[in-house]
Amino acid sequence: MSFLLEIIRLGLNNLRLHKLRSTLTSLGIILGVAAVIVVVSIGEGNKQAALKNIEALGATNVIVRSVKPAEAANTGQTRSFVVAYGILFQDFRRLQTWFGDALSIVPLKSIGSEVSYGPTRIQSQAYGTTPELLDVARLRLDRGRYIEAQDVADRAPVCVIGDEVARQLFKLRDPLGADLRIDQQVFRVIGVLKPVGLAGGTGSALVGRDLNKDVHVPISTAESNFGNIVMRRQAGSFSGEEIELSEVYVVAPNTEGVLTLAERVRRVMEAGHPTMADVQVIVPWELLENAKRQMLVWNIMLVAIAAVSLLVGGIGIMNIMLASVTERTREIGIRRALGATRRNIILQFLVETGSLSSLGGVVGILLGVGVSLALGQLVPLLASLPWFRGVATSKFALEPQITLWSIVTSFLVAAGVGLIFGIYPAVIASRKDPIVALRHD
C-alpha cells in the first residue's frame, strides 16, 4: 500500500511541476464535461416545460375541437359569407349517449366577436360552458366564484374572465361586480381566473388559443343570447362562422383507459363527420407519451454530439502523454535500473492521466453547472435587447434543469476516457529497455 501511495505521489508531483501543460491537456476534458452538462440541462428544461404544458390540458381528457376546413379558410375574403362547420349539438348528444362511463362531458360554445369595458375593446374569446369546466380544464380561481348550476338554469348574464382579460380591461379597478360587454350583451363579472401557464407554450398551440384571454359565461345564456353565428371583422371585410359547439371535453375515468376512450370518441365523431375535416380529436396523454419519446431521442443525440468533445479531450491526453514518455525516457531508465517493474511504470502514468481527467471532470462540472444557471438569467436579458428582437420575443425564457445523472455520467466518462487513452502511453513507457533508456539524452 505504501508503495502504491508513493507512485500516486510521484505522479501528482510530476503534474504539479508542469502546471500549464497539465491545464492545457485537461482543457478538452473540462470543455467536454461542461458541454454535456449544459446540453443536457437545456434539453431537460425544454422537455419539462413541454411536458408541463401538455399535462396542464389534463392527462385523462379527450378534447374534441371544431376546426375550420382548409377549403373554407381559402375562400375569397373580400366579401361577406358564412361558413358552417364543427361540432353539432347532435354530436354532443351522441357523445352523452355512448359515453356513460365518462366522468364528465363538458361543452364550450364560442360567442361574440368583441369584448369591451368602457372605451377598451379586445378581440373576443368568449365561450358558453358549464360549471364542470373549472375542474376538467384544471382552471383555478384567483378571486370571486365560477359559474354554478343555478346560473345555467337561470340563464344568468354573468361571466368569469381570464387573467389577461382582467389586466387589459380593468387596469385601475377590481373587475368583480363590473359590467363588461360581449358584442352588445352586458355581463356581470363574478370571478377572475388565475394565470394559466399555457400562454404562448406548447399547450397553447394545442388548444389553439391563449387561455388567459378567455371569458366564460353559462352555456344556456350563450345559446339564448347569441345563437350559432359568430361574425368576425377583418381588414376591409367581415365573415361569419356558424359553429354550434367549439369544443367538447370528454374525461376518462383513468389514464389507462384514455386511449381506448379516445378511439371510441373518434369513431362516434366520424358518424357525423366522415372526413373529420372540420373536427379534431386531441389526446393530451397520447401527446405526452409521444413527447417523452421524442425528447429522449433528442437528448441522446445532443449527448452524443457533446461526447465528441470528451473523445477529443482523451486524444489530447494521449498525445501529451506520448510526448511525455519520450521526454522522460532517461527518468524511466533510472527507475527501471533501481528496481521499478513494468507494472510500476504503467501505474505511474495511469495515475497521471487519471488525475488529469478526474480534475478536468470536476472543473468541467463546476463550469457546466455555472453556465447552465447563468443561461436561465442571461437569455431573457438578451432577448429584451434591441439587437435580438428580430430573433426572439422579450418573453422568451430558458429554464435549464441540471440533472444528477448528467453530472455523474459525464464525470465517470471523463475519468474513464483519461484512463483508457492513458493505457497506450503507459505501456509504451513500460516496454522501454533500461539500458537504452539510460543512454537517452
How would you portray this structure in words?
- The protein is built from 15 helices and 15 strands.
- The chain is elongated, with a radius of gyration of 33 Å.
- Strands 1, 3, 4, 5, 6, 7, 8, 9, 10, 11, 14 and 15 form a twelve-stranded mixed beta sheet that branches. Strands 2-13-12 form a three-stranded mixed beta sheet, with no helix packed on it.
- The chain has helices spanning 2-17, 19-55, 70-73, 89-98, 133-136, 149-154, 163-169, 202-207, 219-226, 258-272, 284-327, 329-337, 342-383, 404-430, 434-439, and strands at 61-66, 82-84, 104-111, 114-117, 120-123, 126-129, 141-144, 158-161, 179-182, 185-193, 215-218, 229-234, 237-242, 247-251, 279-282.
- Strand 4 (114-117) and strand 5 (120-123) form a beta hairpin.
- The longest helix has 44 residues, at 284-327.
- 55% of the residues lie in helices and 17% in strands.
- It has two domains: 2-54 and 290-439, no CATH class; 61-251, no CATH class.
- 37% of the residues are buried.
- The chain has 441 residues and is an alpha+beta fold.
